[in-house]
Amino acid sequence: MSVDYKNTINLPQTDFPMRAGLPELEPKILKRWDDIDLWGKLRADSKGREKFILHDGPPYANGHLHIGHALNKILKDIIVRSRQMTGYDAPYVPGWDCHGLPIEWKIEEKYRAEGLDKDDVPVDEFRKECREFAAKWIDIQRAEFKRLGVLGDWDNPYTTMAYGAEAQIAKEIGKFLMQGSLYKGARPVWWSAVEKTALAEAEAEYMEHKSTTIWVKFPVVTPATPELDGASVVIWTTTPWTIPGNRAIACHEDFDYVVIEVTAVDDGAKGAVVGEKLAVAKALVDSVCEQAKITGHKVVAALNGSQIKGTVCAHPWRDYADAKGGYDFDVPVLAADYVTEDAGTGFVHIAPGHGADDWKLGVEHGIEVPQTVGEDGSFYDFVPLMAGKVVITQDGKEGDANPSVLRELAIAGKLLAKGSIRHQYPHSWRSKAPLIFRNTAQWFISMESHGLRDVALKAIDETAFYPKQGKTRLHSMIKERPDWCISRQRSWGVPIPVFVNKESGEPLRDQAVVDRIVEAFKLEGADAWFSSDPSRFLGNEYNVDDFEQVKDVVDVWFDSGSTHSFVLEGREDQQWPASLYLEGSDQHRGWFHSSLLESCGTRGRAPYDAVLTHGFVMAEDGRKMSKSLGNVVVPAEVNEKYGAEILRLWVVSEDYSGDLRVGEKMLKQLTDYYRRFRNTLRWMLGGLAYYDPAKRVAAADMPELERWVLHRVAELDKIVRKGIENYDFTLIFRELHEFCAVDLSAFYFDIRKDSLYCDAKDDPTRLASLTVLDILFESLTAWLAPILSFTTEEAWLTRHGDADGKSVHLRQIESVPADWLLPAADAARFDLVRQVRRVVLAALEQKRYEKEIRSNLEAAPVLYADAKYVQAFDKLDLADVLITSQARFADGAAPDGAYTLSDVPGVAVVFQKADGEKCERCWKVLPDVGSVPEAPGVCGRCADAVGTAEAAE
């Protein structure tokens, strides 16, 4: 009668399910973390350790999270968790940016929908609505960030609108005021006519825009060289509306220029006249003639730029009757290095009120900087010819200024040609309307007066950048940037707490006044500036009537750039400077930039030791995400469908130093990666049900295969630690996935499952394998915990129980014994073993396809191999490794027809069927099946195992 041996087999036993059910599981784990106060336990556990501080760049509190938020916060969480598990105290304090245009714009949109004008609302009421709006979205975003598994001090975040924060921001402004580097000056800045405020460069989005281009003739009045007598210098511009602001022309001293005489024009020519002389760059003559429809010309003079500078021209509207003398000034030709020959004419029209380079060149040469355009984007009434004309309308469209300029130039006979160009042009990040450069009085922090530029450049050199090119990028920005414009003409923000003397125009520099302002802000917030009588701040020392109170608010980049002062310095659990700042690569001109300048200006160094940047998120086809294209990936929807764990895996699955892609196909592929990790943990848990710590086997006593696995653990430990140190979690993901899929599942587990299932419970090989499973489980759950924070917690609790507030995240990544690493030759032999195994498995796959066998256990392959392959199997059981019932190496040359693989020379396989009967317990085909009468139908090994099991019972 047949015996049922099923109950004698050590089949895997675990409650860890194959299907994760992450959307349901993750909220339960999050609740448990709250219930056991995981955050508090981590702080208590790591008290006294060296700190690792990742300072959170504050997102805006103005909407639901997008996929970029998910990338940013998950990456931060992975870094913080990994540092916490490698010996640091890493308290993460999340924060929010609460002031500024993004939030103010939302409140204005509400007013417009109700038919109200924001300017009719009392400022304190308006600010109160902004504050409430931000507070609402902080609560929403906090819940959404926590749902992603991001662990932090969520009960005590920082916000830039907290009274203490607003007071500290005012104090930081006061430092620049007192040192003398804060000043008020007029210069061109990016201006939004729609929002009626100056914008920082970081608030500008470059979008495709169609611009009108014009070629304009400036008649030479006083030539620097006789060859220019009677000629016109031709300029080219993509902003015709700036012509009223023209005050100079720039050339390049080293360029070759020519004066051409027009000899023929096409019938369609509008501005070119036969006989006139035009000065243009030699390299651009053909393109100018093509645009102006000049069909014939001759070169009458060849000049160098150095000969042309000093020439004086007339404005195109000089002597133009309708201008009524408004443009009868000289226009000098100046030399400038930024002039190019890429397009245009080789001459640049200079409007000092409408460009940073123009302004700088004008100031250097004492050129007037006119104010021509008002805050609403229309020309002032005193501007000749253009009074009231609109550059950008209030709904963000192009106004009538450009067409008016073209018309008046054409009537005056100075418009040589016109065209159009599609190019990237700055737009407001909120209204999406085109920006203009506008000369206006603003508050600036000098880059030169107190050496801020030099201090900042030195600080960059002393900072580590990941990737390294970030250093070059930020360095070039700081090296070339103008003074920092920090004022905004808005209502929601920290005011620039300055009083200006009405008689002298100078700001009041009095530390006692600054201190009174700061104390008031601590008690009542920055609203105190608008609700208090100025005497509260000025005190008895000054007459209120002698001073003007500044009502501009500070640029939000100054807000966020000051966070280091009230978070890193202001909290006991933090430390200044931060170990790391981490944001998207656009923050080289944003938060990294403003934080650097603020800190260098007040503390003499950067507020961070290192800067890490990640790329942007694109759709999986490489296109930009767009609702109209239907390719937007919403984190909340991914959480509900796949689980946040898949997003966490996505963050490390690609090189996040560049742009990342994500979409439905990629998410499904990531679930396959996830299943490999999960199944690896599940397989180990199934085997570890039989693990007894009292029977743990020392590494030195383990079989060769187990020693190799420990060697791989030691190698991976080094890789993981290096990846953590260098913030290269893509490397960690790639190596661990390869390890689980190839080294473990397809090799070690495949080989050792027979021993684990069928060997006697105390068999040395089985006990060694169980010991290795324990080591693998402890190692993998620690290595993966920062990335797969939910799954590793689930696996850890499945094995160790959930009593006493246990958590995988309270562990440390333990050091690996040095003697686990094998000599290079010993480790390399397993590469040869796997090559042999691959040839044999391929040969047996063919036999299964040909239906000669149904299982590899029916085979007893004969191998013909070079000596190095034979030696590689020293002390290894050949049949166990090949997962066949029998196997052997044969001497001599392989016979014809032996199976080979071209990429594994020196190995050939001859198929033979195994000799014997099939064991009913282990399914191997062996000669000794049935040799033990007390255990019919099984092999000798299984008979011993059954006897051992019965004796144990």
From TrEMBL:
Residues 706-858 form the Methionyl/Valyl/Leucyl/Isoleucyl-tRNA synthetase anticodon-binding domain. Keywords: Aminoacyl-tRNA synthetase, ATP-binding, Cytoplasm, Ligase, Metal-binding, Nucleotide-binding, Protein biosynthesis, Zinc. The keyword Ligase applies. It catalyses: tRNA(Ile) + L-isoleucine + ATP = L-isoleucyl-tRNA(Ile) + AMP + diphosphate. It is an enzyme of class 6 (ligase). Zn(2+) binds at residues 919, 922, 939, 942. GO terms for biological process: isoleucyl-tRNA aminoacylation. Its cofactor is Zn(2+). L-isoleucyl-5'-AMP binds at residue 583. It comes from the Bacteria. Binds 1 zinc ion per subunit. GO terms for molecular function: aminoacyl-tRNA deacylase activity; ATP binding; isoleucine-tRNA ligase activity; tRNA binding; zinc ion binding. The keyword Zinc applies. Monomer. IleRS has two distinct active sites: one for aminoacylation and one for editing. The misactivated valine is translocated from the active site to the editing site, which sterically excludes the correctly activated isoleucine. The single editing site contains two valyl binding pockets, one specific for each substrate (Val-AMP or Val-tRNA(Ile)). This is Isoleucine--tRNA ligase. It comes from Pacificispira spongiicola.
